[in-house]
Amino acid sequence: MPLQDLSNQIAIVTGGTRGIGGAVTRALLACGATVVATYGGNAAAAEAFLASLPDEERQRCTTRAFDVADNQAVEAFFQEFDAKYEQLDILVNCAGIRQDGVVAMLPEESWRRVLSVNLDGAFHVAKQAVLRMLRKRSGRVVFITSPMGRLGWNGQANYAASKAGLVGMCRSLAKEVARRGITVNCVSPGFIDTEFIGELSEEQKKEYASLVPCRRFGRVEEVADGVLYLLGPLAGYVTGSVLEISGGL
Length: 249
Ligand SMILES: NC(=O)c1ccc[n+]([C@@H]2O[C@H](COP(=O)([O-])OP(=O)(O)OC[C@H]3O[C@@H](n4cnc5c(N)ncnc54)[C@H](OP(=O)(O)O)[C@@H]3O)[C@@H](O)[C@H]2O)c1
Fold this sequence. Notes:
- By secondary structure, the chain is α/β, with parallel strands linked by helices.
- The protein has one domain (10-245): 3-Layer(aba) Sandwich (Rossmann fold).
- Helix content is 47%, strand content 15%.
- A seven-stranded parallel sheet has the order 3-2-1-4-5-6-7, sandwiched between helices.
- Strand 1 (10-14), helix 1 (19-30) and strand 2 form a beta-alpha-beta unit.
- The protein starts with 9 loop residues before the first strand and ends with a strand.
- Bound molecules: NADP nicotinamide-adenine-dinucleotide phosphate.
- NADP nicotinamide-adenine-dinucleotide phosphate binds at residues 14-15, 17-21, 39-42, 45, 67-69, 94-97, 117, 144, 146, 189, 191-192, 194-197.
């Protein structure tokens, strides 16, 4: 039973073929939306994701590959989108990477690449999405940030800076477009069991879980539930907010 009716709504989910974004795509499809799920380059994962969907939902889902850090590629994607769809109702920006290292040893390229994908990429995509939403005077935007942007974390200066930057961009954009019926919010997941943290040893996972007041990692579906709330009718007066789904981290 879907939580809400999003039929006739068109959504773009960046990073929408795996992990948290994959769960958001599934949730939107279950609510009746049509979804374009984008990814960086892992075509095998995107194909497996599509294949895993029930037939009826697969017909409402397409996948597209491009690098969100590349503004020309983002613009080309939106031109292709316009040729197929008349409107854009929802953007969920999940595409993100980490390349950890302590500042004293962090290569310039790792600083730049994480900022380029996580922050520049979100700007590139949000700019194009909001241009389309402004015309029809409605829309919902959700960025996936991280508590690391608020807390800071050893070896994650680049990642934390990108995620803190996202919150600042979200709050500014929310103020710019509120009068046009567009809400802009962040969801901030704590430690969520995805390939994103896949290289952590079992020992590290136990140690991290012990830091969480709920004493466990979150599930992707628990993050998708929060995103759905912000996309639905119950959240019409919620904008410029950060919904933290972190087990109390
Ligand atoms: N997992 C956590 O504990 C956690 C906690 C807080 C916040 N987050 C945030 O949640 C978001 C999703 O994380 P996740 O755990 O679901 O990660 P994930 O499983 O690694 O999935 C990342 C997704 O982003 C896409 N992507 C990566 N770089 C891209 C690029 N340059 N251009 C376009 N798409 C790109 C990937 O595409 P490919 O499949 O082609 O690689 C994939 O679809 C990220 O922004 C992350 O920072 C995660």
